[in-house]
What does this fold into?
Amino acid sequence: MAISNFKKKIAVFLSGEGSNLKNLYKFSKTKRSKFTIHLVISNKKNAKGILFSKSKKIKSYSIGKKMSVFEKNSLLLIREENIDIICLAGFMRILSKEFVQKCKIPIINIHPSLLPKYKGLHTHARAIKNKDQFSGCTAHHVTSKLDAGKIILQKKVKILKKDNEITLSKKILKVEHQIYPIALNKIC
Ligand code: GAR
It folds into this structure.
């Protein structure tokens, strides 16, 4: 049996650019990877990440309706496709407690701050406004509470005086790309 048959099947949920998806996909093609990207689901019809996954012939769905419809259909797909782990990668909606409970497989997320600092949105602006010396990113398990699950990996980034929201977000995104595949491999 080919080694790839033993790899964990991943579903990625996203809402936008999909640079983390691209990066996970790239890593999945390396020998170190314990996973394959099997399914991509977006809540936005024209999300760039969906165009990418389609171009790689990954099963891809846009379910851009009410969250209840998104969750119901996603759950069916997760079960049908025997997905092992869900990775949120720039997924800008909050999954309900019911979804997290019914899923029964690990769900992980990458968040652009040093959790537990700055849960939710506008993390870079908040770190700069507070004159923090460091920000960074966190890969963590998803629970029914926003950005509050157990931390898998975290990496710091220095905030320079000249940094603004855009430069900081770029630096942090690069570090997200370093840690997210490693964090995922760790839980596979
Ligand atoms: C990333 O910075 C990710 O950490 C963040 O959205 C960006 C998505 O980029 N996620 C959140 O803020 C979730 N709360 P990408 O679409 O290029 O991967």
Remarks:
- The mean pLDDT is 95.
- The pocket of glycinamide ribonucleotide is lined by residues 14, 16-20, 89-90, 110-112, 173, 176 (CB under 6 Å).
- The CA atoms of residues 23 and 177 lie 6 Å apart.
- The radius of gyration is 16 Å.
